[in-house]
Amino acid sequence: MQAPPRPKTIGHFIGGAAVDPASATRFGEVFDPARGEVQARVAFADEATVDHAVRAARQAFAGWSRTPIGKRTEILFSFRELMRKHVADFAALVSSEHGKIVHDAEGEVARALEVIDFACGLAQQTKGQFSENVSRSVDTYSLRQPVGVCAGITPFNFPMMVPAWMFAPAIAAGNAFVLKPSERDPSASVLVAQLWKEAGLPDGVFNVVHGDKVAVDALLAHPMVDAISFVGSTPIAKHVYETAAKNGKRVQALGGAKNHMVILPDADMDAAADALVSAAYGSAGQRCMAISASVTVGDAAGPLLDAVRTRVAKLKVGAGHDRTNDMGPVVTAQARDRILGAIELGLKAGATLAIDGRDLRVGGYEGGFFIGPTLFDNVKPEMSIYRDEIFGPVLVNLRSATLEDAIGLIARNPYGNGTAIFTRNGAAARKFQNEVEVGMVGINVPIPVPVGYYSFGGWKNSLFGDLHIYGEEGFRFYTRGKVVTSRWDEAGAGVNLGFPTHK
Ligand code: NAD
């Protein structure tokens, strides 16, 4: 009998070369979520492999940080062009390992490209300031210099876009980078590494190590790593923030979310329902900016939820490679079981299950990790389906008497990533934008992920650290300030033991 084909093995990329995965001692499984089958293995880095990658980055940093701005810009532009040529390859890789529909994966790649576009403007973003004559013959100027070796630890749900949020500004600013992508969908990062090399980036400036907690903790502890960027769930974000800070590194750690969409009774209910269904069930609810809680104010619930039901009935759920589908599976069997468990808890707590996605079967994909769109109504703030991040296609609806109550509800929620309001009343929208305790706000826009020339970041348990990711704040995170005070004068200043002043 012929042996079944061995799954391919995905390896690290260090110092400009692929590392033979056979050298690894531990591996993870990468699934095809639509079929529920293992499609590949991925090598898991141990401490020695992480050390190898960090040393390669440290060595490359010396040359890259001194590479002229014009040359770095050229390489960024070449990389951008290669990325654009490979959009379809990235979308196919992301879709096959994550499960999202290929048109959704294309959107993710487009948003990654936006951040890379911005990073091509590195000359502008790394400029300092100059003040002439701050004292007699004395000038003062400021520089922004790269930090050193920066590491990125990223989640499964955007395997292309979230790494780009980090590596694009970090490398543009003159740093070397070690990426530890999610072990669930690691292939896109390897293609990124190949394209950086093809674009002319010196070996060792961009490295990829795969793995789990062992690799992450080795990065957090490594004395040659200067900065850590993390995106993932809140408990791990806290661990990363605390450990990296304790080890003296600069760190930004973005966590989980429970994003509310407030619908006032005067909203255009068709537009609000379109937006809510798209934002709640797109990518099977596995977006950090997914709307997972709707808050209907006054008598908005009746018309809104009717319109949502009509739309959900038309959604087509299936495998990611078929672009006629609207929604794919969730990422793993564990994720599916966790989400089904959360639904059970909602039922036990007494919420009304208005749309039940538990028994969905997709023909030809019986082993896939599918859950249909699910909606709970009459949810109370103390219920776990509201308190906890479910990260699946489960929307919970809460009813609120007034806009003030809705804003108060959001303020009491421990997360503060994104939120949206749907209304025709400008004054209500302005009040919401001003008072809501959330980092990213949409007004008649359901997923307000800022464009690449702004910055992304939530409040409260959705971000530990102060600087947001990408945009100008990204460049600030990946550079450190230096201020020079210089005197060029034929005459000496003379002895003066007083504290220097401008006089
Ligand atoms: P996760 O926290 O499980 O994993 C994120 C990264 O941390 C992965 O690279 C993983 O290997 C690593 N990791 C996992 N457990 C670890 C441990 N115990 N110690 C050290 N490292 C560990 O997150 P996920 O399931 O991959 O992604 C989904 C989560 O990410 C959701 O909570 C979502 O809201 C969040 N997310 C947030 C944003 C944002 O911008 N705020 C964006 C995307 C995703």
Radius of gyration: 25 Å
- How many separate helices? 16
CATH superfamily of the largest domain: Aldehyde Dehydrogenase, Chain A, domain 1
Sheet having the most strands: 7 strands, mixed
CATH fold descriptor of the largest domain: Aldehyde Dehydrogenase, Chain A, domain 1
Number of strands: 23
Report the average pLDDT across residues: 97
List unreliable stretches of 5+ residues: none
The overall number of domains is 2
Question: Could you say which overall geometry the principal axes of the C-alpha atoms support?
Answer: globular
Task: Describe the structure in your own words.
It contains 16 helices and 23 strands. It is an alpha/beta fold and 503 residues long. The chain has 2 domains: 270 residues, Aldehyde Dehydrogenase, Chain A, domain 1 (3-Layer(aba) Sandwich), CATH 3.40.605.10; 185 residues, Aldehyde Dehydrogenase, Chain A, domain 2 (3-Layer(aba) Sandwich). The strands form 6 sheets. It has a 7-stranded mixed beta sheet, with helices on both faces. A 6-stranded mixed beta sheet has the order 10-9-8-11-12-22, sandwiched between helices. The chain has a 3-stranded mixed beta sheet with strand order 1-5-4, with helices on one face. α9 links the parallel β11 and β12. The protein is globular, with a radius of gyration of 25 Å. The mean pLDDT is 97.
